[in-house]
Each structure stands twice: as structure tokens, then as C-alpha cells.
Amino acid sequence: MNKTIDKMLDKREMIFISSTNRSDARNFHVSDYYRTPIPKIKEFLSEFSKHENILNSKIRILDPCAGGDNTNQMSYPTAIQEFSNQDISIDTIDIRDDSRANLKQDYLKFQPKEKYDVIITNPPFNLSLDIINKALNDVKEGGFVIMLLRLNCLGGKVRQELWKNNMPKYIFVHNKRMSFTDNGKTDSIEYAHFVWKKGYNPNFSKLKVLISK
Ligand SMILES: C[S@@+](CC[C@H](N)C(=O)[O-])C[C@H]1O[C@@H](n2cnc3c(N)ncnc32)[C@H](O)[C@@H]1O
User: Disulfide check for 149: which of 135, 153, 158, 177 has CB 3.0–4.6 Å away?
Assistant: First the structure.
């Protein structure tokens, strides 16, 4: 009897350990600071710019959860500058004092003076829905909200209203799991760049799989 219980406990522990090894890669950092790999953002920009021409010197872009710290650049602003090879002005916000953002504050309390053409980021997991909804409010009509999200965010009760009222125009799935940490660990799920166009709520999103080499 005891042996059977021991075996069951061993089995549970093994399952716990193995799922932890694969899926906790983003669970324990301050304010959920994880760095999006710059090459993955460029991969997305390269495909996205075949469909929408957004990168020019007049565009107003906001990265509301910009990241960066004393050793790392802010991933999205860096990728956009390098990819476009232009001096594009990007406003940056982050709640952490050690971030490289221009404005250190809670994005959810930020009052923009003017609406943006593009709002783009990899949001903290636990606030992603609030951040998407606020970004949809802070972007101009016809502007874009672009968020890197886990693919399984398409499910779940909490996001039902979002998908009912705001289908993205595009979903760019990164077929190779990305690592947000130096140790190369990955989440147990693929990520995608979800692209909403404000005022454009299609019945179906266009889905493209980005095949990494
Ligand atoms: C997953 S990281 C992404 C960082 C960066 N965008 C990147 O892709 O490398 C999320 C970032 O959001 C910041 N953050 C968390 N809560 C926030 C809030 N309420 N307002 C603004 N930034 C926040 C964290 O400090 C962290 O830098």
C-alpha cells in the first residue's frame, strides 16, 4: 500500500519537475522582465513590412513595457532602429527603475498627449489583457497594436471579450520556441506577434508561420 502511494508521489513529482523545466522559463523575474531576442523581432518586422508599410521617419511609436537594464538594450526599439535603418522616434515606458525607458511608470496609468500610430511590445504575462486593451485605446484609428503573446492566449475565458470584439488583422507565429533568458530555456509553448489594426475587426485573422532557420 505504502509502496503504491510512494510510486504515485514519485510520478507526480516527476511530472511536476519535467513541466517546470520546460514551462517556468518566464515565471520568476521582477515585474516579468524577460528580453525578447532582437533577431526574432527582426524576423517579424521583415515579414510584416511585406504587408504593411509602417516604418518611416514621421511615425509615432510607443513601446509601453520597453525593458532594458544596465547590460541590455531595449529589444523592440533596438530591433526597429536596426531593421529600418532610419532614425525613428520611439517613446518608451517601463515600470522598473533600472529599465532604459524614457519614462519610468506604470503604463496602465499613462495618459498620452496624442494617440500613437503603432504600439508594440512583449507585455508582462499577468497584465497582458489590460495592456492590450489600453493600447487599443491609445492608438490612432487605422494604427497598429502589436503584441508578442503565447499562442495559447487564444483560449481562456478572460480573453473571450477581446476575441469577440477585436480580432487581430494578422497573427505571425514563430514556429521555433524562443528563449527569453541567458540559459537558453524556453517556455513549453510557441509565441506569436499578434497585430491589431484599430477599427478593423475581421471575422478571421490572417495567420502566417515564420519558419526559423
Ligand atoms: C516580458 S518583459 C519585456 C521587455 C521588453 N519589451 C522585451 O521585449 O525585451 C515585460 C516588461 O514590462 C515591464 N512592466 C511590467 N509591468 C509594467 C507596467 N504596469 N507598466 C509598464 N511596464 C511594465 C517590466 O519591467 C518588463 O521590463
Answer: 153
Q: How many residues does the chain have?
A: 213
Nearest CA to ligand 1 atom 26: 33
**Domain range spanning residue 67?**
29-210
* Distance from residue 62's CA to the centre of ligand 1 (Å): 13
**Quick check: is 155 in a domain?**
yes
Between CA 100 and CA 128 the distance in angstroms is 21
pLDDT single digits (tens) 34-56: 999 999 999 999 999 999 998 88
Q: Are 121 and 147 in contact (CB under 8 A)?
A: yes
49 CA to middle of ligand 1, Å? 25
Beta-carbon count within 10 A of 147 CB: 22
| Ligand 1 atom having least distance to the Cα of 110 | 20
Nearest to 200 by CA among 43, 92, 52: 52
Mind listing the pLDDT tens digit for each residue in 180-210? 988 888 888 999 999 999 999 999 999 999 9
Number of domains in the chain: 1
Is the C-beta atom of 122 inside 6 A of ligand 1?
yes
Q: Does some domain include residue 120? A: yes
**Residue 14: predicted pLDDT:** 34
- From the CB of 34, is ligand 1 less than 6 Å away? yes
- Amino acid type, 90: I
